[in-house]
Design goal:
With about 290 residues, the protein is α/β, with parallel strands linked by helices. Helices cover about 35% and strands about 20% of the residues.
C-alpha cells in the first residue's frame, strides 16, 4: 500500500516517499535523469474528477498548469485513456498550451494517438463489431430488463454501459457483467470494467500495451504511471515488466474508495486528482 500526500499547495513541499523499494528507485531515477523519463497519466479519476455524466468531466483546473511546468523537463508526458483521443484533448484543455508541445494523448487505450505538435489524431479503421453492438445494445438492455438509471455512452470506437445513476449502482453493475460479456464475445469484442461502467471495445489493445509501446518509442530510462481504475491495471503491469527489464518505474494510485486494487499495487497513493496535480507540480519544482 502506498502513502498519502499532504494537503498543502506549496509546490516546494518535500516529495512524498514511496513505500516500496521499487517505487523509491523509480522516483530516484526520474529525479536523476528527468530528460529520459516518461510520465504516463490516466484521464478520468486521475487528471479529471469522476462525475455522474462523463460528458461533463473536465481536467482539474490546476492540471494543465502543472503539466505545462513538468512536461518541458521530461522526455514525454502521455495521457493514456479509454476515451477517444479528441474528447480527452477537449475535456483536458491540452491543445495549444505553451509547455505541452510534446504531450501525446493515447486514446481508446492506445488505438488512437494525438500529438500536440501536429494537433492531429492517427487511428486504424474502426472494428466492425462496435457498430453491430451499437445497433443491438438498446434492445438488448430492454430484453434483459436492465436496471432503471442504466444508460449508454457512445465512444466512437467503443460503447459503454453506465450504472452510476441506477438505484443500486453496484448491483446493476454485477447483474450486467455476464450478459454484456456474452454480447461482446458474439461480436468479437471484450468488456472492460471500470468504476460503475462496462465498456464494450475491440481486443488487442490496452493501457499496458499503449504505455509499453510509447516508452520504447521514446527510449525512456524511467517511467511514472498514475491511474485510478481497473483499466489501469495493465499499465501497472507494464511498469512491472519495464522494471524487470531494468527500467525503473513509479506506480501512483489516484485514490478512491471505489477501487482498492490499484492502491494495493501502488508505490504511492495520492488523494484523487487534486493529489495527482499536487504531485506533478511538486515534481516539476524539484527537477532541474
Amino acid at each position: 500500500m502506498g502513502t498519502h500526500t499532504t494537503d498543502s499547495t506549496d509546490p516546494m513541499d518535500p516529495l512524498p516517499t514511496p513505500t516500496t523499494p521499487a517505487g523509491r528507485e523509480g522516483l530516484a531515477a526520474l529525479l536523476a535523469r528527468p530528460r529520459t523519463a516518461v510520465i504516463g497519466l490516466d484521464f478520468d479519476g486521475t487528471l479529471a474528477p469522476i462525475v455522474a455524466d462523463p460528458e461533463q468531466a473536465r481536467a482539474h483546473p490546476e492540471a494543465v498548469p502543472a503539466l505545462a511546468l513538468l512536461a518541458p523537463k521530461v522526455a514525454s508526458v502521455a495521457v493514456v485513456t479509454g476515451r477517444p483521443a479528441g474528447v480527452a484533448v477537449r475535456h483536458g484543455g491540452f491543445a495549444g498550451v505553451p509547455g505541452l508541445e510534446h504531450l501525446v494523448v493515447l486514446g481508446h487505450y492506445g488505438a488512437e494517438r494525438w500529438e500536440a505538435a501536429s494537433g492531429e489524431v492517427s487511428a486504424p479503421p474502426p472494428h466492425p463489431g462496435v457498430a453491430a453492438v451499437r445497433a443491438e445494445l438498446p434492445g438488448f438492455l430492454d430484453r434483459i430488463g436492465a436496471w432503471h438509471g442504466t444508460w449508454i455512452e457512445e465512444k466512437g470506437r467503443a460503447v459503454a454501459v453506465h450504472t452510476r445513476r441506477a438505484d443500486d449502482p453496484q448491483a446493476a453493475f454485477e447483474a450486467l457483467r455476464e450478459p454484456l460479456a456474452e454480447l461482446a464475445t458474439r461480436h468479437g469484442l471484450i468488456v472492460e470494467p471500470g468504476r460503475m461502467v462496462l465498456e464494450l471495445r475491440p481486443p488487442g489493445m490496452d493501457k499496458g500495451v499503449a504505455l509499453l509501446e510509447h516508452v520504447r518509442r521514446i527510449g525512456a530510462e524511467s517511467v511514472v504511471y498514475a491511474g485510478d481504475d481497473l483499466g489501469d491495471l495493465p499499465a501497472f503491469a507494464a511498469v512491472d515488466k519495464l522494471r524487470s527489464d531494468g527500467v525503473p518505474g513509479l506506480l501512483v494510485c489516484s485514490g478512491s474508495s471505489e477501487v482498492t486494487e490499484l492502491a494495493e499495487r501502488a508505490d504511492l497513493v495520492v488523494d484523487g486528482p487534486q493529489g495527482v496535480v499536487r504531485l506533478l507540480r511538486t515534481l516539476a519544482a524539484h527537477l532541474d
